[in-house]
C-alpha cells in the first residue's frame, strides 16, 4: 500500500489544490490530505470548518483520507506510514522555498520522498490568499474554488462585515 501525504492549510481549498489531489490519487493507493495546524498563521476558517470543506469537496475520491496534525510534516508522514509528501507548485517562485523544505525533510526522514506536482496552467495564478481577497470584495470566484467553498467564503465575509458594522 503506497501512501502519500498532501499537507497544507487549505484555507480554503482551491481548484488548484483539487487538481494536485486528483493527480496524486493516480500515483498512490491512499492520499492523506492533511491540514497542518499552524498557530502562527491566522486562518479565515476554523480547523473544523476546513475539515468540513475538505470532506464535502473530496467525498467522491475514495483514495483520499482527510486529517489534521500539528508539528513537523515529515514526522506526521512517518507516523502515517507514508512513502511520499506531495507539494504543489504554481510558479517557479514557489520552488526555492519548497526545495529547501524538501531537503530538510530528506535529512530528517531519508525514507520519505517529496514529489512536486505542477498545477495545470489554468490554476497557476490561484492562491488561497488571492481567493480570499477576491471573495472579500465580492469578485467572481468562478473556476477558482468549488461551489460549496464559494458559498462558505461568501457567508464568512458577510458575517465578518456584519460584525464590523456593529
From TrEMBL:
Substrate binds at residues 9, 41, 73, 87. Keywords: ATP-binding, Coenzyme A biosynthesis, Cytoplasm, Magnesium, Nucleotide-binding, Nucleotidyltransferase, Transferase. GO terms for molecular function: ATP binding; pantetheine-phosphate adenylyltransferase activity. Its cofactor is Mg(2+). InterPro entries: Cyt_trans-like, PPAT, Rossmann-like_a/b/a_fold. The record marks 17 as: Transition state stabilizer. Signal peptide: none annotated. It is found in: Cytoplasm. GO terms for cellular component: cytoplasm. It comes from the Bacteria. The keyword Nucleotidyltransferase applies. Reversibly transfers an adenylyl group from ATP to 4'-phosphopantetheine, yielding dephospho-CoA (dPCoA) and pyrophosphate. Homohexamer. This is Phosphopantetheine adenylyltransferase. It comes from Ammonifex degensii (strain DSM 10501 / KC4).
Amino acid at each position: 500500500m503506497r501512501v502519500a501525504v498532501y499537507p497544507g492549510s487549505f484555507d480554503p481549498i482551491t481548484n488548484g489544490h483539487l487538481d494536485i489531489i486528483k493527480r496524486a490519487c493516480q500515483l498512490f493507493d491512499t492520499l492523506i490530505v492533511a491540514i497542518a495546524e499552524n498557530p502562527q498563521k491566522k486562518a479565515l476558517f476554523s480547523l473544523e470548518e476546513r475539515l468540513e470543506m475538505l470532506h464535502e469537496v473530496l467525498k467522491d475520491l475514495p483514495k483520499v483520507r482527510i486529517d489534521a496534525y500539528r508539528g513537523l510534516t515529515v514526522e506526521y508522514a512517518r507516523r502515517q506510514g507514508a512513502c511520499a509528501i506531495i507539494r504543489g507548485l504554481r510558479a517557479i517562485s514557489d520552488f526555492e522555498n519548497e526545495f529547501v523544505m524538501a531537503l530538510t525533510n530528506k535529512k530528517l526522514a531519508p525514507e520519505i520522498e517529496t514529489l512536486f506536482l505542477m498545477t495545470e496552467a489554468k490554476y497557476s495564478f490561484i492562491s488561497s490568499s488571492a481567493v480570499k481577497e477576491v471573495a472579500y470584495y465580492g469578485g467572481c470566484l468562478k473556476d477558482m474554488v468549488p461551489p460549496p467553498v464559494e458559498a462558505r467564503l461568501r457567508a464568512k465575509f458577510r458575517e465578518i462585515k456584519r460584525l464590523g458594522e456593529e
